[in-house]
Design goal:
The structure holds three protein chains of three kinds. Chain A has 13 helices and two strands; from the N terminus they run H-H-H-H-H-H-E-E-H-H-H-H-H-H-H. By secondary structure, chain A is mainly α. The model of chain A has no long low-confidence stretch (mean pLDDT 82). Chain B folds into two domains: 33 residues, no CATH class; 310 residues, ABC transporter involved in vitamin B12 uptake, BtuC (Orthogonal Bundle), CATH 1.10.3470. In chain B, strands 1-4 form a two-stranded antiparallel ribbon. In chain B, helix 5 runs antiparallel to helix 10, helix 11 crosses helix 12 and helix 12 runs antiparallel to helix 13. Chain B is globular, with a radius of gyration of 21 Å. Chain C has a domain of 134 residues: P-loop containing nucleotide triphosphate hydrolases (Rossmann fold, 3-Layer(aba) Sandwich). In chain C, 37% of the residues lie in helices and 24% in strands. Chain C contains ten helices and ten strands. In chain C, helix 5 packs across helix 6. The radius of gyration of chain C is 19 Å and the shape is globular. The N and C termini of chain C lie far apart (54 Å). The model of chain C has no long low-confidence stretch (mean pLDDT 87). Classes of the chains: A mainly alpha, B mainly alpha, C alpha/beta. At the A-B interface, helix 6, helix 11 and helix 13 of A face helix 6, helix 11 and helix 13 of B.
């Protein structure tokens, strides 16, 4: 009985008696959800256009952030360093397309997945060798990101909002809107959607697959850079960030590998779900359940809806 | 010239269906076994035994396990490391609870526990396929990792959170614990791995293995042949996790001597997956090649500079190692996506017609 | 198991489909289709592309479950029957787009058809010795008979992925035969074949019926083949049955002619 009460009653009592804290928890979850969604977004971009399950997306986040901070440490001013970091992501995209994707065209999914895991190992080694393995501090002030704290009175208590979190949410929304407009309105966007729909048909009307791949990997690189800046500003820049990258995977299961709205909604659901779960139910299990709760949520969800949140029902044809 | 099957006529189906139908292969396998049992112990020093041969063989077993699931039954798993952990903790608990029973019995039995856990986490394979399934196996990885850290009962509430292999012996010779020599551990590991390879090879060559490959290649048609998909997949999960579990138990008892929860993290899962892919999906010998390659390569990279008298900082070696392994994996996937086993088959074919390939 | 099924007397109904309607998210694949298959006959299902012929076969062996109507097989009506259950009850099948196990050799593909007939359990399989090995050898013998019958001895050990299309179709037929089915569903067994291959395949189909007494339901586009091989013909158009009868009757049916040649408006 006690156990049932601890599971089904107590957490809700705690939520009800301190609603400000509940909102605070949801907000924290929301912000990490935004960042999960961004990692998942970079992933979806690549999967849609090239069918590659890009395991390296998380490492690209770290790598981009490391490049930015590393350049700044080497004496490059903040904004030129940002431009240079974007340039590095472009070089990386071209390199990956030339060296990895082009020779592996038409290989089965798992081979491409393994190649991106190999890429992950390579980028970890390269990043540590060039920029050093120790954690770095993100150049938040130099980039003009506000770092203050807002206190919002709510239910006679204060809701604490970090300006940096608000910035992260706003930037994320802006970027998703921009990408949405870009894909809907521009010629490149149309070509990209054509490729996502049917590779061969796209080829037959003269769209260069190789160019599209460079573009999506570059776009995913920029998304990674933005994610890396935001994440780095909230904690530190180091390869421990890799863990977040793995968190993007349940987001993808939830949202589907090919759906941008799915990535966003899935990210928020996972972010909020695991924070609320950890704070209100984690104690029952001795804490630390954040490490697997997201997967469990995604798994349970998949059992009822194997196509994900926004996927179409799969009809098997024979 | 020497590798010719000319004149070897098969007059029974049994001979045609043997696992090594060609005489030279049978001789070859005997020679390799003899070399492993007699040659290696005579030549190799303790370092080679303890840091190359023993871990190499243990990883081979884990790779065989994953190969059964991924290569034969077509279900991708990223949770091998955790299943190895289940075996390790099960063996630890059993061996410390019943010290009078021989440790080898517990090691062979520990796999049963990881098989059970594997079946539970294999259940989603009923509805989820391919990469989605791969991601869901991460649930197993992280959940089990968490259990190893949080559930004190598993480690007998050891303060360090690590498990240690106690001294156990076989026929009066120490085979685990600090006093066990690399040589005695090597013999035990070799024996177990050869025995389990034999079992695995029999399984995949018979009806059960065929059922797995049917599910892998065309699940719809497999159903039409009367295969029930879920039991077939769950059996693959069970057998695969059994091998992984035994490998994990051996890892603690015969190689590391002690293990922290982090030993069974996701990087171990990836390491085994690399072995399977590089070695060759759906190939027993590929598991050997893959384990040897992925395990020996970093050791080589680490010690190669010393051989040439070059001193390099260990951190740099670490980073370079990571880069080189990553690059080599990509290189191998590009050159031969079917792995070392395919290269081996091609080489044998070449040898068959050598020196007159027309 | 087939052996446990009592054979059905020639000319009696082996399978009836009654008022089948099947739709996918608002698209009607089949609407109120009924017909029967008699033991020992060759029953053809014809119709223009998209008429629902393959969907009909999928309903019969349990890949699709119709919203309305029922399939009565051997006198039992079972809704929601799974494909593997259909296999156990003696229904074999080949596919329009060849669904072979492409990583396996011809031999193993046909051995795969014997799966249900093999019973040695996990323990013996681990040892591959004694009973398990004897069982493999017995079934290998059966498989070799089928290989002889279909004249594919030369490709016994070739991985099927490497075979040309016509041979793949033949291997697939062999795999279905290895199940020793009582009712064999053939989905366009001659699609994409040249005249010679078609003649071979027709000969095999008639031989199968002669030698094994198998009832055959086939989908085929080549009218010449259909008229020569089949005893009775069902015609589908847009998921509805528009004609049913002997080849001659169907051939002269005005609605069928309209369906194939288009109506004059």
């Amino acid at each position: 009985m006690d156990l049932l009460a601890a599971i089904f009653v107590d957490p809700f009592v705690r939520m009800g008696t301190n609603p400000t804290f509940l909102i605070q928890v949801i907000w924290e979850g929301f912000v990490s959800g935004v960042l999960y969604a961004l990692v998942a977004l970079g992933f979806v971009l690549i999967f849609k256009a090239s069918g590659v399950f890009n395991f390296a997306q998380g490492i690209m986040v770290v790598f981009a952030a490391l490049a930015l901070v590393g350049l700044h440490e080497a004496g490059v001013p903040a904004w030129p360093a940002l431009a240079a970091a974007i340039g590095i992501m472009l070089i990386l995209a071209i390199g990956i397309e030339r060296v990895v994707l082009r020779p592996l065209v038409n290989q089965p999914d798992i081979i491409l997945l393994m190649a991106t895991i190999g890429l992950t190992r390579f980028l970890v080694g390269l990043g540590e060798m060039v920029f050093g393995g120790e954690p770095k501090v993100m150049i938040t002030e130099a980039l003009g990101i506000p770092t203050g704290i807002l206190r919002l009175p709510l239910f006679e208590k204060n809701l604490i909002l970090k300006e940096i979190d608000i910035t992260a949410a706003v930037v994320a929304i802006l970027m998703v809107t921009f990408l949405g407009v870009f894909f809907a309105r521009t010629k490149i966007g149309r070509a990209l959607r054509a490729v996502a729909d049917d590779h061969q048909a796209a080829l037959s009307v003269g769209i260069s697959l190789n160019r599209i791949w460079v573009i999506v990997w570059f776009a995913a690189g920029i998304v990674a850079l933005v994610t890396g800046i935001m994440w780095g500003a909230r904690s530190q820049v180091s390869f421990d960030l890799e863990v977040i990258a793995l968190k993007a995977l349940p987001v993808l299961i939830l949202g589907g590998f090919t759906s941008v709205p799915g990535a966003i909604v899935g990210g928020l659901m996972i972010g909020i779900g695991e924070k609320v779960g950890e704070i209100y139910w984690g104690r029952l299990l001795g804490g630390g359940i954040e490490s697997w709760l997201a997967y469990l949520i995604a798994l349970a969800f998949l059992l009822f809806r194997p196509q994900g949140l926004f996927g179409e029902k799969i009809i098997e044809r024979v | 010239m020497f590798y010719r099957e000319v004149g070897q006529f098969k007059s029974t189906y049994a001979a045609d269906m043997a696992i090594f139908p060609i005489r030279q292969d049978r001789i070859g396998i005997m020679a390799i076994l003899a070399a492993a049992a007699v040659g290696v112990p005579l030549i190799a020093n303790d370092f080679v035994l303890a840091s190359i041969m023993i871990p190499g063989l243990i990883f081979t077993l884990a790779a065989i396990g994953l190969n059964i699931l991924t290569g034969y039954a077509g279900q991708i798993s990223l949770g091998t490391g955790a299943f190895m952990g289940v075996g390790a903790y099960a063996a630890f608990k059993l061996a410390s609870a019943f010290p009078q029973v021989n440790v080898i019995v517990w090691i062979l039995l520990s796999g049963v526990f990881s098989a059970g856990v594997g079946v539970v986490f294999g259940l989603p394979s009923l509805r989820i396929k391919g990469l989605y399934l791969a991601v869901t196996t991460l649930a197993a990885q992280f959940f089990l990792d968490w259990c190893f850290v949080r559930v004190g009962w598993l480690t007998d509430y050891s303060s360090s959170g690590a498990i240690e292999a106690a001294r156990r012996s076989l026929f009066g010779v120490a085979i685990s614990g600090p006093e066990a020599t690399p040589l005695s551990r090597y013999f035990v590991v070799l024996g177990l791995v050869v025995f389990l390879t034999f079992i695995a090879s029999n399984l995949v060559h018979g009806r059960i293995g065929r059922t797995w490959m049917m599910v892998r290649d065309m699940d719809i048609a497999a159903e039409l042949m009367g295969v029930r998909l879920l039991p077939a997949k769950l059996l693959a999960f069970a057998v695969s996790s059994y091998f992984a579990g035994v490998a994990g138990a051996m890892m603690v008892f015969f190689w590391l001597g002690a293990a922290e929860p982090s030993a069974f993290s996701i990087s171990l899962s990836f390491q085994v997956l690399f072995m399977v892919i590089i070695g060759g999906l759906g190939s027993m010998i590929g598991s050997y090649f893959g384990a040897a390659f992925i395990w020996a390569l970093p050791v080589l990279i680490k010690f190669a500079p010393n051989l040439f008298g070059v001193e390099i900082q260990s951190a740099t070696v670490e980073h370079a190692n990571s880069m080189i392994v990553g690059a080599l994996i990509i290189f191998f996937l590009i050159v031969e996506p079917h792995g070392l086993a395919r290269l081996w088959a091609v080489a044998k074919q070449k040898l068959r017609v050598w020196p007159f390939p027309w | 198991m087939r052996s446990s099924l009592l054979p059905i007397e020639k000319g009696r109904q082996i399978l009836q489909v009654e008022n089948i309607s099947l739709s996918f998210g608002g698209v009607n694949a089949l609407t109120d289709v009924s017909f029967d298959i008699l033991a020992g006959e060759v029953r053809a299902i014809i119709g223009p592309n998209g008429a629902g012929k393959t969907s009909m076969l999928n309903v019969i062996n349990g890949f699709y479950h119709p919203q309305v109507g029922r399939v009565i097989h051997r006198g039992e009506a079972r809704t929601g029957r799974k494909p593997h259950e259909a296999a156990r009850r003696g229904i074999g099948r080949t596919f329009q787009n060849v669904a072979l196990f492409k990583g396996l050799s011809t031999l193993d593909n046909i051995m795969a058809g014997r799966t249900l007939k093999m019973s040695r359990g996990f323990f013996w399989q681990c040892l591959r010795f004694g009973p398990a090995l004897n069982e493999e050898i017995d079934h290998r013998r059966k498989v070799e008979e089928i290989i002889d019958f279909l004249e594919i001895e030369h490709i016994r050990k070739v991985p099927v992925g490497k075979l040309p299309y016509g041979l793949k179709k033949r291997v697939e037929l062999g795999r279905a035969l290895a199940q020793e089915p009582e009712l064999l569903l053939l989905d366009e067994p001659m699609a994409g074949m040249n005249l010679e291959e078609k003649e071979d395949m027709s000969r095999f189909i008639l031989d199968i019926r002669e030698t094994f007494g198998t009832t055959i339901a086939l989908i085929e586009h080549d009218m010449g083949v259909v008229m020569d091989l089949s005893d009775r013909v069902v015609v589908l158009e847009y998921g509805r049955k528009i004609a049913d009868g002997t080849p001659d009757e169907v051939q002269n049916d005005q609605t069928v002619i309209d369906a194939y040649l288009g109506r004059s408006h």
